[in-house]
Amino acid sequence: MSHTHVTSEISRKDYILSITVIGIFFFIFGFVTWLNSILIPFLKTACELNDFQAYFVTTAFYVSYFVMALPSSAVLKRTGFLNGMTIGLWVMALGALIFIPAALTRTFSLFLTGLFVQGTGLALLQTASNPYITIIGPPESAAKRISIMGIANKFAGAIAPVILASIILHDNDLLQQSLANASDALTHATILNEMAHRVIMPYIVMAVVLIILGLAIRFAPLPEVDTDSEDSTTTENNAGKNSIWQFPYLFLGVIALFFYVGVEVIAGDSIIRYGQSLGVSMDSAKYYTSLTMVGMIIGYLSGIIFIPRYLKQSDALKICTILGVIFSLGAIFVPAQNSFTMHFIDLVTFKPIELVIPVTVMFIALLGFANALVWPAVWPLAITGLGRFTKTGSAMLIMAIVGGALLPLLYGKLAVTFSTQSAYWVCIPCYLVIMYYAFIGHKAGK
By the 8 A CB rule, do 355 and 289 touch? Predict the structure, then answer.
């Protein structure tokens, strides 16, 4: 069946229900994913790591997408989209529970194992939900629907690090002072052990919520969509195609998403640690990821307003890549000592707060705005016309999330070798690759 046919078979009530439930899933993606921005500085202290080692947090989390995306596709072919979502939620719950022994023993490798398992569940959940939200409505408005999902995702990303920081790093400056004043190794270890134990309760709560949601999705009356019944003549792009390798625009989209996820994760997960490296206290720095997420939310709202009525998906992508280069250069070249004060509303307590923000940090936050429409634009450009290859194509696009495993690690290495500011040079070639896809690559083979 074609995308149009899929849409016509689904009632407006089912369509709204589907959008709502998948929106909840995208909230979960955002909440779990952007906790990493706090886990990086937290585990850097608790497990006594350097910057390079700390960024293995993102590596363990995002490499699971690469390892598990194609197996996820195989699972979905057996279970369907909806049962696959349930399994994904339960696997994520298992990953959250692994944090308990990791915290009790303060073992970094166990924390990484928990993150890998969580990423495995998310890989399955994303391999199911991204094509589901693309196919459930008209293809020309797919970027708008994904933008709506993105708002749910990034709103969660804005509040998640603030919530976790308020639980596990609420007295970070005092904690650092206690560690510096520790008179012996036993006292030092005791302080770190107590610090590590703080993550246990939040991750128990997370596991319980994920298990309940997994049960709920089994009883939610969501429509199942069937992409496997499409034959090779359903779309012009699919005519006569008998292999996934015959869609060059898909593979170029995979490459573009690899570099996009890398810079998105760098912008969201490095910004708190970057602020700390410039001498900003955790009281201000813990909100920096929220600034990046707010920038993304504004970008998504722009997408909802302008796509496809005033702006084509490919044109939005072009604008995003140009802004990405400009903001990256701003972050690199603005002197680190230039800063300003900004009044902000705490997204958890809704109380007004005053943040100290170096200008270079603000440029990193603005990358959130530049990044916002890249995923919503690339995904439908890369997946449209795949027909019966949709699940495999989706899995390959999900594999591209491995960019979030490798590029932040490269940023961490550059930060140790040179400086946390000059390490942002890694962003420039990433945006240039995405720019190629925006202007040329998405047309290949069409």
Answer: no
Q: pLDDT digits over 280-303, tens only? A: 988 889 899 989 999 998 988 888
**What are the φ and ψ backbone dihedral angles of 128, each rounded to 5 degrees?**
-85, -45
Sequence-ordered list of residues with C-beta below 8 angstroms from that of 367, at least 6 positions apart, any chain: 263, 264, 267, 292, 295, 324, 327, 328, 331, 427
If residue 354 lies in a helix (H) or strand (E), which one and from where to where? strand 352-358
The region of weakest confidence among 95-104, 214-223, 293-302, 325-334 is 214-223
DSSP labels for 392-441? Answer: HHHHHHHHGGGHHHHHHHHHHHHHHHS-TTGGGGGHHHHHHHHHHHHHTG
Tally helices (H) and strands (E) across the chain: 20, 2
List, in sequence order, the alpha helices (H) in 10-141.
12-33, 36-46, 51-54, 56-105, 108-135
Stated pTM of the model: 0.81
What's the rounded Cα separation, in Å, for the pair 129 and 222?
Answer: 12
Please give the full DSSP string across 250-285, using - where no structure is assigned.
Answer: HHHHHHHHHHHHHHHHHHHHSHHHHHHHTT--HHHH
Length of the chain: 446
Q: What are residue 339's phi and psi, to 5 degrees?
A: -145, 170
> For the residues 79-98, what does the mean pLDDT come to?
90
- Going from the C-alpha of 13 to that of each of 83, 222, 235, the distances in angstroms are 21, 10, 27
Say how far apart CA 151 and CA 299 lie, in whole Å.
Answer: 9
Cβ contacts of 191-195, under 8 Å, gap ≥ 24: 192/45, 192/46, 192/47, 192/48, 192/106, 193/106, 195/42, 195/45, 195/46, 195/168
The answer to whether 255 and 145 have CB atoms below 8 angstroms apart is no
What CA–CA distance (Å, rounded) separates 99 from 93? 10
Residue 357 phi, psi dihedral angles, 5° rounding: -130, 115
Distance CA 345, CA 353 (A): 6
At 386-445, the pLDDT tens digits run: 877 877 887 788 888 899 999 999 999 999 999 999 999 999 999 999 999 999 988 887
Angle (CA) 15 20 21, round 5°: 100
Q: Domain 3-218+249-443, CATH 3.30.1490.120 — does that match?
A: no
Give residue limits of the domains in the chain.
3-218+249-443
> pLDDT by residue (tens digit) across 330-358?
999 999 999 999 887 876 777 888 888 99
Using CA atoms, how far apart are residues 336 and 56, in angstroms rounded to an integer? 26
